Amino acid sequence: MKSLIIPDSVLVSLHASSKKQVLQELSHKAASLLDMPEREILEALMEREKLGSTGIGKGIAIPHCRLPGLTRVAGIFAKLDPAVEFESVDSQPVDLVFLLMAPTSAGADHLRALATISRCLRNENTCAKLRGTSTPDAIHAILLEDV
User: Torsion angle, CA of 85/86/92/95, rounded to 10 degrees?
Assistant: First the structure.
């Protein structure tokens, strides 16, 4: 997880009114951190969402995509306020989002990172800590300790 996320890639109290707006905000942040075109990131995320929602239930979403030109697996975590309808498997709104981006060629690395994030966010204690914390540094520390 250390290689996936840094404190600067944690967003707290992200305000968005829709799933699309959440993905737009995350794409904007990713573009600035990774020096990539925002539109390219958003289009890749929207294409992935067409295959099926990345809302995995219990208020959690893990949108993910592969991007040409990206040199490493990278992530952005966002805590939404308020929660947003995300077409989740349990129909519950989402308030915790972990965006995962990987190079086009990173098949196994992408899957390992996705599994790590999923394990972390399926832990109810971890999610309770994340929901009860309001600073990027504290959220970053929680994500690192609970891997």
Answer: -80
pLDDT at residue 147, as a whole number: 56
Q: Which residues are catalytic?
A: 64
For 86-127, how does the pLDDT look when each residue is reduced to its tens digit (9 = 90+)?
A: 999 999 999 999 999 999 988 788 899 999 999 999 999 999
Q: Where are the domains of the chain?
A: 7-145
Quote the CA–CA distance of 69 and 121 in Å, as a whole number.
28
Kindly report the CATH number that applies to the domain delimited by 7-145: 3.40.930.10
Query: Residue 92 CB: number of other CB atoms within 10 A?
Result: 15
Residue 8 confidence (pLDDT) above 70:
yes
pLDDT at 14: 96
What distances in angstroms separate CA 78 from CA 92, 97, 108, 132, one per listed residue? 17, 5, 25, 13
Residue reference for tokens 């990173």 = 106
